[in-house]
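ugh ok so i messed up the first submission bc i forgot one of the chains. this is the corrected input, ALL of the components this time, i swear. 384 residues overall. if the numbers dont match what u have on ur side tell me asap before i send this to the collaborators (the ones from the other lab, u know who)
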Amino acid sequence: MNHIEQVMGLPVSVDVRAGGDLVDHAIDGVFGWLREVDARFSPFKAGSEVCRYDRGELATSELSADLLEVLSLCDHYERLSGGAFTARLPGRRLDPNAVVKGWAVQRAASLLLAEGLDVFCLNVGGDVVTAGEPEPGRAWRVGIRHPERPGAVCAVVESSGGAVATSAEYERGAHILDGRTGRPPVGLLSVTVAADDLVTADSLATAAFAMGTEGIAWVASQPGCQVLVIDAERQVHRSPGLRLA
Amino acid sequence: MKKTIVAATVALSAAGFLGVWLYEPGPLGSETVAVAAPVPSAVSSSDGGASEGAERTVDGSVESNRYGTVQVRLVISAEDRISEVRLLQRPTSGRGVAAIPILQEETLTAQSADIDTVSGATSTSESYVKSLQAALDAR
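and heres the new structure output, hopefully the right one now
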């Protein structure tokens, strides 16, 4: 069954190749979790744990294990990217969203697995986690959105038991900033990363996009991922191991 | 769990790209470029016989927000599959215009033999999702 709903301001679709009450229950769990994440971690909701921490109302020792994990991931990717990726841009409020989404969706996928569902495709605003094969012998086929033509895809990547994330700015304008300069990066149209988990895929894609042109070599050198980068010259840079359908 | 996306096959380095080739934003169709076509397999392929006349349409609710008004129409094939998503009403300006086509595509390709889902920053008006869900519920 395929269920579509809007959470965190994003369209969420869950495609589960099974039926019955168990599936309904599991899908309810996924949406419940994503709504909980939105309430707890949104930098746009004044009462969220993130906002309270940012305003100094919560000490680090009072933070939930979940938020500590998220902040630790933010620090990891900030170091890894030399500061291009950051949750603490000077002059702005704390915004761990770049990590929260991948982290939350990966956790949602583990909820489905824990319910015994092992064939599904979860897509939250274009970030994808897959499990199993929709048909015996074939992986899930994930279309990569064309960076210049809404409604078209520019490549199709195969995934089963993995994650695919794409960073670009065709949808929301220049919402990704280079943490080193505070300005929108230049040189790339989109960065797609396939990895075993969505935290890795999403964070690396965002960090590489924020780095601009130098993000191409950087992301390609990261272990555990395969990449497809389209630069502003309209050249495609692809890892040799990327499974194109 | 089986991991089919693995890094083990090739040790990547900065020079580890298999190739760099010109990206063609124009007509699609090469091996690296594909169009998410509207699910021909989901449409009744028969020109006659039992399925003739079985195709039907279901309209979603009219939903408005600050980006505009959206209403979805689903075309349901004889096999009870979504064969087409049309927009009876859609925003004519602003950000909502860009958001709609990709969602149409995602809805179409969700059942496609070719593509299961789409990766890429997507956002849209809540209206589209609401109208789509209403149409699905009415199916």
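quick check: Chain A touches chain B through 80 residues (CB under 8 Å). that seems consistent at least. The longest helix of chain A spans residues 21-41.
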